[in-house]
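Researcher: Checking consistency across runs. Here is Ribose transport system permease RbsC again:
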Amino acid sequence: MIPTATTSFGRPPSQLAGSWEGGLLVFIALLYLAGAAVNPAFFGSTEGLHALLRDTSRVGIIAVGMTFVIVNKDLDLSVGSTYGLIAVVFARLFAPSFLDLGIVATIVLCLLLGAAIGLLNGVLVTLLKVPAFIATLTMLFIGRGFVLALTHGQAIYYSGKAREYPTFFHLGETNAFGFNNQIAIFAIAATVGAIVLGKTRWGYETFATGGNEQAAVYAGIPANWVRIRAYLISSLSATVAALLAAAQDKGVTPLYGVSWELTVIASVIIGGASILGGRGRVVGSCLGAALVVLIDKVLREGWPITRTVVIDGESIAVSARYTLPAGAVLVFLGLLLVIAVLIEPYLIRRQVLARFWAWLRRQPPPPAMEMGGVAVEGVQTKGAMAADMALSATGLGKFLARRDALAIILAAVLWLTGLALRPDYWWNLSNTFAILLNYTELALITIGLTYVIAAGDIDLSVGAVLALAGSTAAYFLKVLGADPMTAIAMGLLAGMAAGLVNATMTVGFKLPSFIATLGMFYIARGLAAWFVAGQQLTGWSEAYNLIGRKVSDVLLYYGVSLPPGIVRAVAEVVSVQTVWMFLVAVVAGIVLAYTPFGLKVCATGGNLRAAAYAGINTNRIRFLSLMLAALCATMAGLINVAYFRSFNPVAGQFRELDAIASVIIGGGSIFGGHGTMIGALAGAAVITLIRALLQLNVQGFTMPQHWINVFIGVILIIAVLIDIWVRQANILGTLRARFAKEAPTGAGSHG
């Protein structure tokens, strides 16, 4: 018998550390030496190194938990807000000015809250089938809303009471060996996490689930529990980091944890984990955290410079420090996330470094890694039974069977509710159109996002693109003194450039759309603050503001005065932006519902592979949809500046959450393949009316703004669950069919 020739792939890679971690160590050392050369006052001192390790500790602890989630092929965008929320809850429970609890009770309650957040994330993603980025993004906004609401935008301190509990608060201080105790706790967490992920059954189950969940289930692995467990570990890691921050700072501010989810995800990806799941090591994630924190410190600390100041005609050299402007660090972190995600498919999976090393040694290249990892790919189109019901129904039943019927009914009910609560306000024509102005901005964003979601993608950057376009226009108007048309053109250029990057990263480089647009979310938001130096700009030509004024104001600007009557009454309440939104909505609605392009959008989102087999250029469809979303957000940003006659860097905040909720409430599917313009606009009306009702002064009570954001986040989760279980799975139809079968049986047995 002739022996079969086999190919040896060599020793399997270590599950604890490898050459990638070694390369990270070398790079960190070189970067630190560069920082010491540029800014020796900080990086050249032992205090600077100690501060770097201390700050890395909290990020690294969260990165340990995030590694389990990402290896599972999931994502946790809520860790930053969890970190901030736990720190705020600790302060509220412990501080003498609030509940004044003991330290043990406070810690236990914080741990229970952290576990509850992780469990909720896990249940939403696994049992309730909510996409991970939607579930945890919503938890991010809800958590941030709770942070702002519980602090009222103010810091909370408890340094006096902290002296009564030295054992716990010593965790945030330097020990007898000369280093901060947080560093030791980080080392313990990293060691335990590395061993659990690399050498235990928990780790094997995590890698199997992330590599191929369906195969893992066939092998008897409880995949749902593995994913829930990862979210629990992630949330508890953020809780531990927050408790360490509470011990160190002896207080909390509303900014705790802002954008930390970006830092942590970038750390894990830079550490060698794959956003596609099945790959990652805790040691690499910890080194990635050290690298990201080091880069952040290099950027924030700046470098020493010498400036010449003239006093009484005499030039005097003054030592100063150059630091990057507001928003620059956020831009860099967003870029870092996108670059980190690109490293995995283009460097790690293609083994570029190993192949280069083999070429230098004149040896054969290593075998190519598997680029797939998914054995069975299911189609995305769902809810066929609901579609059949819509086709077979007649009369009122046909309307109720529509996916957008819920949004239309809700919008009408909410408007009638406002009329019943405050008829004096609600029935006033000018107040009604004031609500319509708030609706216009959201509706414009929703129009573009409807195409993106129907095509099976998502755009998390629309609110930030709105801010970027607005800041660009405001900068040209105020700082450069440009004319209105130039300002509009430059704002359009900036917004469309952001859309081009989104589309190129998603379609050209094959990044998941939520990762590409999440990176742009931070990049665009940072650029918006950078352009205006973090300040509010105002005071430019009224000619630009006309695009945000009422029709009568525009006519008066050009010397046209309407005679008294119905036309003048309407012109005095209808805004130019409302008319423009209506025109855009009509065109976009006709294209989506009645043209081949619209059909191709829904086909692409329903089943990407089948659409490609049918001859549809799916890449082109997705590219144009993302560009349209950016265009609509850009138009909203330009109008925002004109309407308010100023630009604020927080413009467009939470708008991505509102817009996604609007599309889903309006009948769009988070899985793609569905969407109508009437439904999306009705969904935007629902969100606008809910915000108006919550801000309505009823018998002296008005809900604070931060609680409104929490409420909108809950609405988004409910809307997604309705889409998944009522529209897609048709759970109501299943229950009706089951009861219909049981009813005759029960009647027969009774007789």
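Researcher: Does this match what you'd expect to see?
Model: One thing to look at in this run: The CA atoms of residues 474 and 480 lie 9 Å apart.
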